[in-house]
Structures are given as C-alpha cells and as structure tokens.
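Pasting as-is:
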Amino acid sequence: MKTRKDFLDSIKKAKLIVVKIGSARVSGEESKINDFLYDLVGDIRSLRDQGKEVILVSSGAIAQGKKLLAEESGRETIPNGKTTLAEKQALAAMGQNKLLNLYESFFSRVNIPIAQILFGRKDLNEEKSFSNLKQTFRQLLDWGILPIVNENDSVSTEEINLGDNDILSAIVASIVGADLLLILTGVDGFLNGKEKIDLFTEISKETESLATGPSGPGTGGMFTKINAAKLLLPFGIKTGIVNGEKKHAIAEFFTKETFGTLIGNGNYPHRIPTASEIQSHFFSFSTE
C-alpha cells in the first residue's frame, strides 16, 4: 500500500502547478488578506525560481464587488445575503478589476507580471476554441507571465454550479496538462472527524459522504474540492488540499509529507484530455 512518502519525490519534481484560491482567502479583514497575499507571492516566486511554472485560479470577484458596492453606498449591499443571478453577475463585473488590482499590487513587489484569463464553458465547446485557450496559456507561461484565471462571471452562470471555482481549477489543470493542482482552503486538509487524512489514491462514495459543504463566503466546501481531485485522477494529475491560512502553505506542501491532504494515484498515466472529454467528464459534475 502506497503512503504519502512515496509521492514526495514526484511532488517536488512537479513542473507545472495550478494554485486555486477561494473567496475566503481574498475577502474579510484587510490585514488578513495582506498577510495571505504576502506569503502567496513569496511562495510562487520561490517556485518560479526553481524553474516551475504556475497558474493561479482565483475566486473572489463577487466578494470584492460586494465590498466595493458597500463602500460606495454606505450600506449592506444585499438584504439577508440573498443575491439574484443578475446581482451576482453585476457584482462580479464590479469586483473583477478590484481583485486583479489587488494581485497586481502584490506580485509586482516580487517582479512577477500577471495576466487575466476569463473563460466559461462555451469556450470549451469546440476543439478550435480549446486549442486557442491552451495556446494562450502556453504563450503567457513562455513569456514568464503568471496567468490569473476566473470564470467569466459577469456573463455566465456556471460559477454557481462549479463550487467556488474548485471544478474550474480542475478544468484549467487538465487543459494545460498540469502535474499538480493545489487548492488553498481554510482547514488543514480532508478531515474525518478530528483526524486528517494524509493521502487518498481513490475517492469513494464513502469519502464523498464525509465531505462537507461551504462554511464561508464561497460556494464550494470540501465536497467540491474532493470531486475536483477525483475528476483529475484519470489524467494522472495530483491534487493537494492545504490550509491557506498557514504560513507559507504552498512551500510547506512541497517539503512535508504530512502537510495537507494529497489525492494521487501513480497507476494513471499523465495525459491531456480533449475538449470533448472535458465537456463530458468535468461538466457532468454539479454542486446543485
């Protein structure tokens, strides 16, 4: 039976890494956000200095839009926290620039240029669009630019169904053929009661039944994180679920075999799915 230690070498050798950040990491108290981003940019700078390529998938546009609207209006934006689809799309349109500017202000300090990529399901409907998207990612990485990805929330409804971008991050990892997806969350990994599970080589129905829903400003929770990892297993892509509130969480995952939860199975060959495979495989999952 494989243990987490068996995977440590392959994790360290991961060349292309997708990092997913949930809404909770970039919303709330400004000092807490700043502390998180300070560690994040330092860890990503370190990965790039090691010759690794990184793509960021970030939620938070809607949360930033709510904050901006509250500042402008001087009141709570949505009574009882209930938002219509139109309100969510409008908030995303407001918050997207604010979110990107926040990242720009931190990544510029470590000399990492960034670019924004927004896409939705329709961009994966055809092989041509799929190919163009892959080429865009590759060109940005070749230029040494950090792609920051979000769903095109202001014109689509998919974020509601994709679990605060957990599934979107898995789709991005599959499009680019990443070696590793790292999902930053607010807990130490997958918990069975009070016990953290270090490694899953498969995700069973029993495991899914133990996973919980969202507990913060996002729409995901452990259930969608586990399912994002499950969707990547057949393509030989490993997933790490780590506590983004811990200092230098990304760096810790690469050096400590007990940090976070790893979902991986060395028996699956690494490959990049086609556009039609992504449509049938990833979009068959729904959080509703």
